[in-house]
Structure formats: C-alpha cells, structure tokens
Amino acid sequence: xxxxxxxxxxxxxxxxxxxxxxxxxxxxxxxxxxxxxxxxxxxxxxxxxxxxxxxxxxxxxxxxxxxxxxxxxxxxxxxxxxxxxxxxxxxxxxxxxxxxxxxxxxxxxxxxxxxxxxxxxxxxxxxxxxxxxxxxxxxxxxxxxx
Length: 146
Fold this sequence. Notes:
Structural class: mainly alpha
Radius of gyration: 32 Å
Number of strands: 0
Mean pLDDT: 93
C-alpha cells in the first residue's frame, strides 16, 4: 500500500477533515485507490480491536467503486470534449479555406473580366456587405477589386 504511512498518520494524529483534505489534494485518478487503502486499514483496525462499525468497510468499498466510475466518466467526457473541439476547429478551418477559395474565385473572375464578371461583381458587393454586417470585413482581402 503506497499511502499506508500517510493514512495511518492522518488517522491516528489528525482529524477527519485533515484526512479528507489530504485525499482531495491527491490526483483525481489516485483518490479511489487511496480510499480503498483507507478501507483496508480500517478493516485491520476492526479486526485487531474487535470493534466493528457496522457496514463501514462495505460503504467505503461501494463509495470507492462509485467514485472511480464518476472520475473515469469525467475523464472520458473531458477527452470527448477535446475531440469535439478539435473536430470543430478542423471544420472551421475547412470553412475558412472554402471562403477564401470562393473570394479568390470571385475576384479572379472580376479581374480577368470573365464572362460572368458582372454577376461576380454583384456577388462580391453582397459578400462584402455581409462581412461588414458581421464584423469580418477586411478591405485587404478585396484590395484587387476595390
């Protein structure tokens, strides 16, 4: 038991609040195992003293198992959030690249006086107005036709 000495010290020389504070200060993934170690120490005390607090070790076992499940669920949810955020960022980058490509195409049609240049100029005006309305307009992006 890796935390036995610390747990014994806290059990014998401190109060329950100090014990709880120390457990809570440990890495989240280690806490269920620390609670299991605490349960083992209490079981030893009960066996040595003959004084058994009804259901305490069973309660600690269930608590440690439930707590571990909650910790693992939280860690899984954190990972899923990171994956979702990465996916969102990837999609946003793809959208940004598509917008850049469309803008470049529209500008090229206008600059080269393509057969659809008039329509592309109208489209460019609408896109620039939309960008102005949503605060994303950058005249540098449109300098070739402004």
